[in-house]
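Researcher: Sequence recovery benchmark, item below. Answer with residues only.
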Protein backbone atom coordinates (compact mmCIF):
# COMPACT_ATOMS: atom_id res chain seq x y z
CA UNK A 1 0.00 0.00 0.00
CA UNK A 2 1.41 3.36 -0.90
CA UNK A 3 2.25 5.00 2.43
CA UNK A 4 4.25 8.23 2.22
CA UNK A 5 6.43 9.35 5.13
CA UNK A 6 6.29 12.73 6.83
CA UNK A 7 8.98 14.48 8.87
CA UNK A 8 7.32 12.96 11.96
CA UNK A 9 8.44 9.42 12.80
CA UNK A 10 5.58 6.97 12.14
CA UNK A 11 3.15 9.60 10.85
CA UNK A 12 2.16 8.38 7.39
CA UNK A 13 -0.05 9.50 4.51
CA UNK A 14 -1.81 6.87 2.45
CA UNK A 15 -3.12 7.45 -1.08
CA UNK A 16 -5.09 4.51 -2.43
CA UNK A 17 -5.01 3.24 -5.98
CA UNK A 18 -8.36 4.29 -7.39
CA UNK A 19 -10.06 2.41 -10.24
CA UNK A 20 -12.44 4.63 -12.20
CA UNK A 21 -14.88 3.57 -14.88
CA UNK A 22 -18.24 4.62 -16.28
CA UNK A 23 -19.97 3.50 -13.05
CA UNK A 24 -17.85 5.58 -10.74
CA UNK A 25 -14.82 4.52 -8.71
CA UNK A 26 -13.54 1.66 -6.58
CA UNK A 27 -10.65 1.46 -4.14
CA UNK A 28 -9.49 -0.64 -1.24
CA UNK A 29 -9.77 1.72 1.70
CA UNK A 30 -8.08 -0.80 3.99
CA UNK A 31 -6.29 -4.09 3.42
CA UNK A 32 -4.41 -5.67 6.33
CA UNK A 33 -1.99 -7.67 4.19
CA UNK A 34 -0.93 -4.85 1.93
CA UNK A 35 -0.51 -2.53 4.92
CA UNK A 36 1.66 -5.18 6.58
CA UNK A 37 3.77 -5.53 3.45
CA UNK A 38 4.47 -1.79 3.76
CA UNK A 39 5.53 -2.14 7.41
CA UNK A 40 2.18 -1.12 8.91
CA UNK A 41 1.14 -4.14 10.99
CA UNK A 42 -1.74 -2.89 13.12
CA UNK A 43 -4.66 -4.76 14.62
CA UNK A 44 -7.57 -2.33 14.34
CA UNK A 45 -10.42 -3.13 16.73
CA UNK A 46 -12.83 -0.16 16.55
CA UNK A 47 -14.18 2.09 13.78
CA UNK A 48 -15.59 5.53 14.61
CA UNK A 49 -17.71 7.67 12.32
CA UNK A 50 -18.76 11.28 12.89
CA UNK A 51 -20.67 13.88 10.91
CA UNK A 52 -20.06 17.58 11.49
CA UNK A 53 -20.97 20.89 9.91
CA UNK A 54 -18.72 23.67 8.70
CA UNK A 55 -16.71 25.27 11.50
CA UNK A 56 -16.74 22.29 13.86
CA UNK A 57 -13.40 21.70 15.53
CA UNK A 58 -13.05 18.37 17.38
CA UNK A 59 -9.98 17.85 19.53
CA UNK A 60 -7.26 17.79 20.39
CA UNK A 61 -7.79 14.30 21.84
CA UNK A 62 -5.83 11.19 22.81
CA UNK A 63 -5.94 8.30 25.23
CA UNK A 64 -3.08 7.72 27.65
CA UNK A 65 -1.15 4.45 27.90
CA UNK A 66 -2.03 1.62 28.32
CA UNK A 67 -5.06 2.57 26.19
CA UNK A 68 -3.30 4.75 23.59
CA UNK A 69 -4.73 4.48 20.08
CA UNK A 70 -3.26 4.40 16.60
CA UNK A 71 -5.83 6.06 14.30
CA UNK A 72 -6.28 5.64 10.57
CA UNK A 73 -8.38 8.59 9.44
CA UNK A 74 -10.36 9.19 6.25
CA UNK A 75 -13.17 11.36 4.97
CA UNK A 76 -16.33 9.91 3.42
CA UNK A 77 -17.83 13.24 2.40
CA UNK A 78 -16.58 16.81 2.51
CA UNK A 79 -13.20 18.21 3.51
CA UNK A 80 -11.39 18.49 6.83
CA UNK A 81 -8.14 19.87 8.11
CA UNK A 82 -6.72 17.02 10.16
CA UNK A 83 -4.24 18.09 12.83
CA UNK A 84 -1.91 16.15 15.10
CA UNK A 85 0.53 17.12 17.84
CA UNK A 86 3.49 14.95 18.76
CA UNK A 87 3.45 14.17 22.49
CA UNK A 88 6.31 11.66 22.46
CA UNK A 89 8.89 13.25 24.75
CA UNK A 90 11.85 11.50 23.09
CA UNK A 91 10.73 12.46 19.58
CA UNK A 92 12.63 14.98 17.42
CA UNK A 93 9.25 16.57 16.65
CA UNK A 94 7.94 16.63 20.25
CA UNK A 95 5.52 19.54 20.76
CA UNK A 96 5.18 20.24 17.04
CA UNK A 97 1.96 20.03 15.03
CA UNK A 98 1.29 18.67 11.56
CA UNK A 99 -1.80 19.45 9.44
CA UNK A 100 -3.16 17.83 6.31
CA UNK A 101 -6.29 18.36 4.24
CA UNK A 102 -8.27 15.13 3.88
CA UNK A 103 -11.31 15.01 1.62
CA UNK A 104 -13.70 12.65 -0.09
CA UNK A 105 -12.21 13.98 -3.29
CA UNK A 106 -8.47 13.51 -2.59
CA UNK A 107 -9.13 10.18 -0.78
CA UNK A 108 -6.02 10.64 1.36
CA UNK A 109 -5.85 8.75 4.65
CA UNK A 110 -3.75 9.65 7.63
CA UNK A 111 -2.05 7.13 9.92
CA UNK A 112 -1.62 8.71 13.34
CA UNK A 113 0.54 6.67 15.74
CA UNK A 114 0.10 6.37 19.50
CA UNK A 115 1.58 9.36 21.30
CA UNK A 116 -0.13 12.00 19.18
CA UNK A 117 -3.02 14.29 20.07
CA UNK A 118 -5.53 14.40 17.22
CA UNK A 119 -8.18 16.83 16.04
CA UNK A 120 -9.86 18.16 12.95
CA UNK A 121 -11.72 21.16 11.59
CA UNK A 122 -14.52 20.90 9.04
CA UNK A 123 -13.82 23.10 6.01
CA UNK A 124 -16.78 22.05 3.84
CA UNK A 125 -20.54 22.57 4.45
CA UNK A 126 -20.63 19.17 6.18
CA UNK A 127 -18.13 16.34 6.52
CA UNK A 128 -18.30 12.68 7.49
CA UNK A 129 -15.12 11.29 9.01
CA UNK A 130 -14.29 7.65 9.64
CA UNK A 131 -11.29 6.39 11.55
CA UNK A 132 -10.05 3.00 12.59
CA UNK A 133 -8.49 2.57 16.05
CA UNK A 134 -6.26 -0.18 17.41
CA UNK A 135 -7.45 0.19 21.02
CA UNK A 136 -10.95 0.47 22.40
CA UNK A 137 -12.47 3.68 23.72
CA UNK A 138 -11.53 4.10 27.37
CA UNK A 139 -13.16 7.04 29.11
CA UNK A 140 -10.83 6.94 32.15
CA UNK A 141 -7.71 7.53 30.06
CA UNK A 142 -9.18 10.18 27.73
CA UNK A 143 -7.08 13.34 27.62
CA UNK A 144 -6.92 16.51 25.59
CA UNK A 145 -5.28 19.82 24.78
CA UNK A 146 -7.05 23.11 24.08
CA UNK A 147 -7.37 23.68 20.33
CA UNK A 148 -6.11 27.26 20.49
CA UNK A 149 -3.10 26.62 22.68
CA UNK A 150 -0.70 29.59 22.27
CA UNK A 151 2.42 27.40 22.19
CA UNK A 152 1.03 25.17 19.42
CA UNK A 153 -0.45 28.14 17.50
CA UNK A 154 -2.43 25.92 15.10
CA UNK A 155 -4.13 27.54 12.12
CA UNK A 156 -7.43 25.61 11.94
CA UNK A 157 -8.52 27.60 8.82
CA UNK A 158 -11.79 28.52 10.54
CA UNK A 159 -12.56 32.15 11.55
CA UNK A 160 -12.88 32.40 15.35
CA UNK A 161 -16.52 33.54 15.19
CA UNK A 162 -17.48 30.49 13.06
CA UNK A 163 -15.83 27.83 15.25
CA UNK A 164 -18.20 25.27 16.82
CA UNK A 165 -16.58 23.48 19.75
CA UNK A 166 -17.92 21.20 22.49
CA UNK A 167 -17.93 22.36 26.13
CA UNK A 168 -15.52 19.53 26.87
CA UNK A 169 -13.07 20.83 24.28
CA UNK A 170 -13.38 24.45 25.40
CA UNK A 171 -12.15 23.29 28.81
CA UNK A 172 -9.15 21.23 27.74
CA UNK A 173 -5.78 22.15 29.34
CA UNK A 174 -2.88 23.93 27.70
CA UNK A 175 -0.16 21.85 26.09
CA UNK A 176 2.21 22.71 28.97
CA UNK A 177 -0.26 21.24 31.49
CA UNK A 178 -1.59 18.28 29.51
CA UNK A 179 -1.47 14.70 30.79
CA UNK A 180 1.34 12.82 29.07
CA UNK A 181 2.76 9.36 29.74
CA UNK A 182 4.30 8.93 26.27
C1 LIG B 1 -14.49 8.73 21.13
C2 LIG B 1 -15.74 7.97 21.63
C3 LIG B 1 -16.80 8.65 22.15
N1 LIG B 1 -17.88 7.99 22.58
C4 LIG B 1 -19.02 8.74 23.13
C5 LIG B 1 -18.67 9.66 24.28
C6 LIG B 1 -19.60 10.82 24.09
O1 LIG B 1 -20.83 10.61 24.76
C7 LIG B 1 -19.87 10.86 22.61
C8 LIG B 1 -19.11 11.96 21.88
O2 LIG B 1 -17.75 11.88 22.26
P1 LIG B 1 -16.73 13.06 21.97
O3 LIG B 1 -17.38 14.36 22.24
O4 LIG B 1 -15.47 12.76 22.71
O5 LIG B 1 -16.52 12.89 20.40
P2 LIG B 1 -15.38 13.55 19.50
O6 LIG B 1 -15.13 14.95 19.98
O7 LIG B 1 -15.72 13.36 18.10
O8 LIG B 1 -14.12 12.67 19.91
C9 LIG B 1 -13.23 12.20 18.94
O9 LIG B 1 -12.45 13.31 18.45
C10 LIG B 1 -11.47 12.97 17.49
C11 LIG B 1 -10.73 14.23 17.13
C12 LIG B 1 -10.60 11.85 17.90
O10 LIG B 1 -9.42 11.79 17.59
C13 LIG B 1 -11.27 10.70 18.58
O11 LIG B 1 -10.35 9.83 19.18
C14 LIG B 1 -12.32 11.14 19.56
O12 LIG B 1 -11.68 11.65 20.73
O13 LIG B 1 -19.48 9.60 22.11
C15 LIG B 1 -17.97 6.61 22.50
O14 LIG B 1 -18.97 5.98 22.91
N2 LIG B 1 -16.91 5.93 21.94
C16 LIG B 1 -15.80 6.56 21.51
O15 LIG B 1 -14.85 5.88 21.00
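Model:
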Amino acid sequence: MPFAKTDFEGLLIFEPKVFEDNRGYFFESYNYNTCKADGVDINFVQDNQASSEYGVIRGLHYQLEPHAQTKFVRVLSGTILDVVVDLRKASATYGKSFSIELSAENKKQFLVPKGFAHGYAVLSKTAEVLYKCDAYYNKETEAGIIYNDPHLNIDWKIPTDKAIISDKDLNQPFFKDCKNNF
